[in-house]
Design goal:
This protein has 3 helices and 22 strands. It is mainly beta. The chain has 2 domains: 26-205; 216-325, Sandwich (Immunoglobulin-like). It is elongated. The structure holds calcium ion (2 copies). The site of one calcium ion has 7 residues, from loops.
Amino acid sequence: MRIARAPLVLACAAALSLGAAAGASGAVTWGSALVDSNANTACPSAEPVCTYVQTALPLGESALEAPASGVVVRWRIKGPTNGGNVTFRVIRVAETDVVTSYTSVESAPAKVPSLAAGEVKEFPVQLPVRAGDHIGFDKEAGMFGLFRAQTPVARSAAFIPPLVHNQARLKDQGTVGQLLVQAEIEPDVDNDGFGDETQDSCAAVGVCQDVTPPVLSGLRMRPKAFYPRREKARAGASKPAGSLLRFTASEPARVSVELFRSSRGVPGGKRVGSFDQAAVRGQNLSYFSGKLGKRYLRPGRYRASLVARDGAGNASAPSVVRFRILGPRR
Ligand SMILES: [Ca+2]
Ligand SMILES: [Ca+2]
């Protein structure tokens, strides 16, 4: 009897721990804690719409920067007492020693109704976000109650006119104040662009696996015929040295580039080597110098075959581009 019961207890324990793993929430909150109350803030000029980005928050309140990568599944706003159009924005901030630039990488427009004092309105959304991104929104000049006023530590950057998708800008003004906006980020372990907890069912099932291979598209090289960089230096060639490789990836991936040189009697060409590069989701652009490791490619016709692999090891179909390495000038 005792022997028979032991496996049963083990099985129950295993089931319980699986259940706990599936139910554990990986969602995180980003932006204001929405605790403080509103004060009037118009856009800082006569422009009809402006963008605000949160750049500092008091310690202990919700995270200034997105605490995790994943998908924004909902965002909330406190106030405004008179409604209007608000565009929620995910902002990527790039800092150098000299300047800080701000790029809106994702956005979602919403019609916000007039809210009672202290009331919070929530909007469902599905926007990819990267850890470290900043939160912001566009507001109409006449909308009030989107800041907590006179918060010494909280700061935001203002952009007039508003930010444009994928265009980096320097801020027009710094402003004291907390944007009363908050978002919830869910993990996207299976990389399908949906939050794993409320937008797809993988967390409920307990298996979030990325089974979707990356897709490469729009692969091209400009120019298609070019000198290696060495030849330009030596000959002062009028044709450009090196080429720009451009493609779009459906998700972050490691891309391996295999090079084949046309060779008489060898179908598909002779393999001359390969290199790897990281790809982001969306447009990718990189410079190819015509050099492979320490060697410059010999003049001739080439074929580059790209295969992308995601973090789970799923591989894309090969994507091919042809190019020509020009010979030395005489
Ligand atoms: Ca997902
Ligand atoms: Ca994938």
